[in-house]
Amino acid sequence: MQELSLNVLDIAQNSVRAGAKLIEITVEEQPKTDLLTITIGDDGCGMTAQQVSAVTDPFFTTRTTRKVGLGVPLLKMASEMTGGEFSIVSALGEGTVVKATFGLTHIDRMPLGDIGATICTLVQCNPEIDFVYTFIHSDKSFSADTRQFRQVLEGVPLNSPEVIRFIGEFIRENTAEILNGEREEI
Predict the structure, then answer these.
(1) Is 121 contained in some domain?
(2) How many domains does the chain have?
(3) Contact between residue 20 and residue 126 where contact means Cβ atoms under 8 Å apart
(4) What is the pTM of this model?
(5) CA distances to 32, 53, 75, 104 from 98, in Å
(6) Out of 4, 8, 28, 173, which residue is the most buried by the measure of CB atoms under 10 Å away?
(7) C-alpha pair distances (Å), 53 with each of 6, 9, 65, 73, 90
(8) If DSSP codes are grouped into helix, strand and coil, which group holds residue 124?
(9) Per-residue pLDDT tens for 7-21?
(10) What CATH number is attached to the domain comprising 129?
């Protein structure tokens, strides 16, 4: 994968397959400590300790449609190549949290990519699931929470084109405001 947002998409799809009703995705950038942290948490079915220890093996997958699972191993490798760390915490019946840290300015760090489009894709394809996307830069942050959008929309489906366009613009505008022109992409 060429962009971290595609890894986020893949991991979040694992959460969807795990039966999650709420998926929380956080991108945190801390220039002072030179860290980029991506966290994906869900309330899905969770994994056993044995599954957690095997999930970083590319030849382990719970899917029946293919024999390999590269999403988690690639994210782990991408993180560690930049001096970062990778962890998975999971418990059966409680969900899973995947966390990857990256050297923010490390030459080998892949670009984040279009995380707004990734979130929109997840919402559009899974309108029955709630997503919370949070972006943190230094001490500023914002969240896009589909539970709040549902309240305002009063029954308009989350996957309608107008709503998806709004969510994408909401993420782009709030990210730009937080970055305050520092750069276009992290």
Answers:
(1) yes
(2) 1
(3) no
(4) 0.91
(5) 23, 13, 10, 18
(6) 8
(7) 23, 22, 22, 12, 10
(8) helix
(9) 999 999 999 999 999
(10) 3.30.565.10
